[in-house]
Amino acid sequence: MANNLKLLFLTLAPFLLFSSVAIEAAFQGRCNINKIDAREPSYTREAEGGVSEFWDYNNDEFQCAGVSIHRHRLRQNALMLPSYNNAPVLVYVVQGRGMFGLMISGCPETYESPQEWEESAGEGGKRFRDRHQKIGHFNEGDIIAIPAGAAHWAYNNGDQELVLVALQDNANFANQLDQNPRSFFLAGNPQREQGQSVRRGRGGEHEFGNVFKGFESRLLSEIFQVNEETSRKLQGKDDNRGHLIIVEKSLQVLSPPLRGEEREYGGRMDETNGIEETICTARVRENIDRPSRADVYNPRSGRYSTANSFTLPILRFIGLSAARGVLHQNAIIIVYFTRGQGRTQVVNHRGEAVFDGEVREGQVLVVPFNFAVVKKASEQGNLEWVEFNTNHNAMINTLSGRTSAIRALPADVVAAAYQIPRDEAQRLKFSRVSTLFSSGRSSGRKASE
Hints:
The chain is 14% helix and 31% strand. It is built from nine helices and 27 strands.
């Protein structure tokens, strides 16, 4: 007697981590995609306020994809110093909550303190008026889109460690440099580390430094109209805190209060079509972990949510998109794994398995365009992940289930293709009524010996 069928979900990968530049590189023989691996971070960089972990972007998969990935862990009251990147970045909030700023050159300072603030006294004495660009709040499950060259910062004002995973699309058209990831800091001394960094191998490292450090301090004094001591502070030469720092007495900024569901999910909840948006007012944040927002939902098996240029219009501008998947215990359905463990298989056009193994929390798996993928959660619990796609409207094609390619074929075509009776072709087509997920149970029919 045959065993119960466990291969319950099949998809074709979208432009998951693979851009047009990557495909061109593959044609030129520079990409080895006959074997891929689930990757761990290659090295870490410690700072006063936490630690950053980086994947080796020189690995074949990341080179072909034209991307780099890094993860930041911020302690309570930790501030990630302002910086900008040479390519667009898409961030996913794995854990915690906080606030962030995204500074677009030329946009107005729309957050302004009232006149009476200048005359009021706080703990430190006189309270000064302030004006700055708008500030956003984020929570677990949010994605944040950051255009190339846009300075940004993040602050952990929650009660637990803040974990952020970021994909930098170095092959993006906005990057006019080579494909090495670079961060241009506007403060501190990010090259100065707290303690020892942990490196696994001799991989390429993410490059960063304080851009003010290379200028003469006297010139900075003239530009900002400050004394030379302050200009040296701008350069961060004697700053040993690193790129993540601790803010004493918490960060005080201008920000509208959050209420109700906004507080739970970290920002505005209303939907817009993007027509009224400009680069200064564009939404850059979207929650893809909220169960009620799921695009596909099965209470027994899991859920799947996407964010593309239709739901978050700025993604069209930066050419990226994302998705969030949750598989319940023993369910089957691409990719930074955020929680749990399970098994994943990836098959190429030759019918060869380029990856067949266990995946777990904290690993990254690069899946080439149109490769077939199957996922199965372990018996110990859920398997959860977030996808980063190098296309603003990435789509998947299913190979099993109600909307699959097999289901769309006439029964006689199925019978002729697989050399099976017509009634067996009917069963093959209609055995699964779900769209993406299955609970892992047998269809109730035992196959003939």
